[in-house]
Design brief:
Largest sheet: 5 strands, antiparallel
Strand content: 35-45%
Shape: globular
Oligomer: single chain
Strand order of the largest sheet: 1-2-3-11-12
CATH architecture: 3-Layer(aba) Sandwich
Distance between the termini: 28 Å
Number of strands: 12
Length: 191
């Protein structure tokens, strides 16, 4: 896929190189967009690296929020031989007595809801879980995932991502393979 007219940010992670397109998310602020959907080579490589980093934490279940992180958590689950659960962004009737959490998305200013399907409660209740995302930038998705884990009595033993983004110091406790800068109008990068 060609990004010929779009500026890109080149990254190397888990031995794989990609050019991430830059998109404006606020006036004068651009971020590098990682979209792992369909990128089998990248997902396989980063899953193996994240598994090595998560091994010592001994998670019994992996948890993510839909949708872009689903391929990551699926392969990570296979590599680590532990089950995974996907928290949904919309409630569907077949989810039964779902558990809900809401946070304010810092990027959109809109409330963000996540739902734990009734069928998945027993899988994570009282278990050691690792929360997984593709990129952690504001922490609002992580916050909603943590709220649900608290409601079902799960112990969060790790929070992991392929990349953190923005203020690097804010993410020192995150198990990550790399860090993405935020680009501002003057072309400088904030760490």
């Amino acid at each position: 896929m060609s990004h010929s007219s779009r500026e890109v940010y080149k990254v190397e992670v888990a031995g794989v190189t990609r050019e991430l397109p830059l998109f404006e998310v606020a006036p004068g602020v651009r971020i590098a967009i990682l979209n792992i959907l369909g990128d089998v080579q990248l997902v396989d490589a980063v899953s193996r690296e994240l598994a090595k980093k998560l091994e010592a934490r001994k998670p019994e279940v992996l948890v993510t929020a839909e949708a872009k992180s689903i391929p990551l958590i699926h392969v990570l689950s296979t590599v680590m031989n532990v089950p995974y659960v996907v928290l949904r962004k919309k409630y569907k009737p077949y989810m039964g007595d779902a558990i809900e959490a809401e946070t304010l998305s810092i990027t959109t200013g809109e409330p963000q809801k996540l739902y734990l399907d009734e069928k998945d409660k027993d899988i994570i209740s009282g278990r050691r879980v690792a929360l997984v995302d593709d990129v952690i930038s504001t922490g609002s998705t992580l916050q909603a995932m943590r709220l649900i884990m608290d409601k079902v009595g799960a112990e969060v033993v790790a929070e992991a991502a392929i990349f953190t983004e923005g203020d690097r110091a804010k993410w020192r406790d995150i198990v990550a393979l790399g860090h993405l800068p935020v680009f501002t109008d003057d072309r400088s990068q904030s760490s």
